């Protein structure tokens, strides 16, 4: 099951929905100016309901399709690194015993 930290602020919601997309590209998708999106993300301006709903739908779609967030990707890399280190340490122990 995919775990995601649900956004608890407007900024987190917008950044999570934007993902790796640039501010300019995401702003165009939303139909707003990039500087306007920047103000939404910095919480200097409240995002309209249509923008919030778009972001919620996008996050919902990410969860349904299994897309991962940057945090999930980093955690997966850390798990792989830890597994590799454990394997290498185990092999070194076997070599030292031989």
Summarize the structure.
Helices cover 71% and strands 0% of the residues. With 98 residues, it is an all-alpha fold.
Largest sheet: none
Q: If you compute it from the alpha carbons, what radius of gyration comes out, rounded to the nearest whole angstrom?
A: 20 Å
- H/E topology pattern: HHHHH
Give the termini separation: 42 Å
Strand element count: 0
Structure overview:
The chain is built from five helices and no strands. It has helices at 10-18, 23-30, 34-41, 49-65, 70-97. Helix 1 crosses helix 4 and helix 2 packs across helix 3. The longest helix has 28 residues, at 70-97. It is elongated, with a radius of gyration of 20 Å.
Question: Which SSEs are present, and which pair or pack?
Answer:
Elements: H1 10-18, H2 23-30, H3 34-41, H4 49-65, H5 70-97
Helix pairs in contact: 1-4, 2-3
Could you name the key traits of this structure?
elongated, 5 helices, mainly alpha, 98 residues, single chain
């Amino acid at each position: 099951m995919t775990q995601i930290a649900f956004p608890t602020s407007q900024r987190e919601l917008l950044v999570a929905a934007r993902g790796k997309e640039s501010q300019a590209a995401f702003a165009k998708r939303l139909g707003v100016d990039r500087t306007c999106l920047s103000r939404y993300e910095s919480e200097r301006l409240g995002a309209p309901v249509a923008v919030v709903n778009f972001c919620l739908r996008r996050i919902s779609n990410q969860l349904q399709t299994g897309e991962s967030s940057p945090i999930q990707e980093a955690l997966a890399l850390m798990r792989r690194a830890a597994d590799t280190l454990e394997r290498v340490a185990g092999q070194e122990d076997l070599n030292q015993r031989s």
